[in-house]
Amino acid sequence: MSRIYRSEAIILRNRHFLESSKITTLYTLEMGKVEVVAKGSRRPGSQFGASLDTATHCSAVFYHRPERDLHTLSQCDILNPFPELHDNLSRMAYAASCLQFVDLTTPLEEPHDKLFHLILMLLRTLEAVEHDTSCRPLLWAFLLRASGLSGWAIVLDRCLLCNEEAPIVGISASLGGTICTNCRDSTDDLVACSPGTVKFLRWLSTARWERMARLSVDHAVEDQAQAIIRQHINRHTERDLTSLDFLAYV
Ligand SMILES: [Zn+2]
């Protein structure tokens, strides 16, 4: 039997469905990721208006049928349209990468309120950021933290093999964390990593969002951090986050 749910939600993505409708993927506070049909939403003057735009924070009402994966959206009201974010192609590209990551890595209908609030914090920070160049640390921080919430954080506070706080020389993708100078020969997939990059990755895991939005980072450190995070994600999802490629052009 169907049941009506109302929940705060963030629009992850849309795809066309039949002649005039969309299938919309929501990340909801109450139920996690949910797929709904928004009937008639591609018709001019649809009641849904701009509420289904990707990266919009809204209040959604939907009919949920427990035996199905696809439910029916009844109402969607905008709570925050993030206008500065939507008007800026570069910032939207960063938001899209994060939302694609959530879509790829979360199962349907498993609520995770910390992940919901992490997505919301990212969108609020991207909305308020002063310079587009500040978006990159926000992206890497989001991916690091969302990986942690999914149960596969990169271990950064010690050597994964000997558990000591000896000098770190690299990160092992297969083991998922930092390796010290004494253990460097015990793993065959070590990615070299400077002390500055390890420090940067640790900082991204814990720093306040408004501080990250004002950060200026050395390019070499950022490139190394990016390669490490991307390799970590690819290994755990067994898929490449294609939207990250687009970021090279914005
Ligand atoms: Zn060690």
Tag the structure with descriptive keywords.
8 helices, de novo design (two linked rop proteins), 250 residues, alpha+beta, 36% helix, OB fold (Dihydrolipoamide Acetyltransferase, E2P), 2 domains, single chain, binds zinc ion, 5-stranded mixed barrel
How would you characterize the overall build of this protein?
The protein is α+β, with helices and mostly antiparallel strands and 250 residues long. It folds into two domains: 3-81, Nucleic acid-binding proteins (OB fold (Dihydrolipoamide Acetyltransferase, E2P)), CATH 2.40.50.140; 89-249, Recombination protein O, C-terminal domain (de novo design (two linked rop proteins), Up-down Bundle), CATH 1.20.1440.120. 36% of the residues lie in helices and 24% in strands. The chain contains eight helices and eight strands. It has helices at residues 83-86, 89-105, 113-128, 135-149, 195-206, 209-212, 219-237, 243-246; strands at 3-17, 21-28, 32-38, 57-64, 70-80, 168-172, 177-180, 190-192. The strands form two sheets. It has a five-stranded mixed β-barrel. Strands 7-6-8 form a three-stranded antiparallel sheet, with no helix packed on it. Strand 6 and strand 7 form a beta hairpin. Helix 2 (89-105) runs parallel beside helix 4 (135-149), helix 4 (135-149) crosses helix 5 and helix 5 (195-206) packs across helix 7. The longest helix has 19 residues, at 219-237. The chain starts with a strand and ends with a helix. The mean pLDDT is 91. Zinc ion (ZN) is lined by residues 159, 161-162, 164, 166, 180, 182-183.
